[in-house]
Design goal:
Strand order of the largest sheet: 1-2
Order of helices and strands: HHHHEE
Oligomer: single chain
Structural class: mainly alpha
Largest sheet: 2 strands, antiparallel
Shape: elongated
Number of helices: 4
Helix content: over 70%
Strand content: 5-15%
Distance between the termini: 36 Å
Number of domains: 1
């Protein structure tokens, strides 16, 4: 979340500055970057707060597995949304070219950039995180509870 918050802050600052220093489609590109990242900063801040409030050391095995699987699903779902953002950006850019609209061109380019970053962010985070989930599942696959006790299969 620190990476997402840093990306958002950088885009808010550069987007706000770029908006006032540019014109035509670059102006709208910067405007959308700043606006889009106000939302990203809110998401990062809320997530960071939620993480800080959780006492993960008190979670039992089942809760840990549930949280890990939930995050994996959220990351994959978000990656799908990111593809939608990029597709919308490409459509806006193309429509802006056809309609000679600086606003649509700038917004489209911004959505392509932001969607691309978020897609990379979500996929890399998933690839780093899913081995933790799979490791916890593998541990449970090696355990067998029987009437006579607990067996561990190596």
């Amino acid at each position: 979340m620190i990476l997402l918050g840093s990306w958002a802050t950088l885009n808010i600052l550069s987007g706000s500055t770029g908006y006032f220093l540019s014109e035509k489609s670059p102006r709208y590109f910067h405007q959308m970057n700043a606006a889009w990242n106000l939302v990203n900063l809110g998401i990062a801040g809320f997530a960071y707060y939620q993480i800080a409030q959780n006492d993960v050391l008190s979670w039992n095995y089942s809760e840990s597995l549930q949280q890990l699987q939930s995050l994996d699903k959220i990351l994959l779902f978000n990656a799908g949304l990111d593809i939608g953002y990029m597709a919308t950006g490409a459509w806006l850019w193309e429509r802006g070219l056809r309609k000679d609209s600086n606003r649509l061109i700038g917004y489209g380019k911004s959505l392509l950039l932001q969607g691309g970053f978020l897609f990379a962010f979500d996929v890399v985070l998933y690839l780093l995180h899913s081995p933790l989930t799979n490791g916890l599942i593998n541990i449970s696959d090696q355990l067998e509870i029987t009437a006579s006790g607990l067996r561990i299969h190596f």
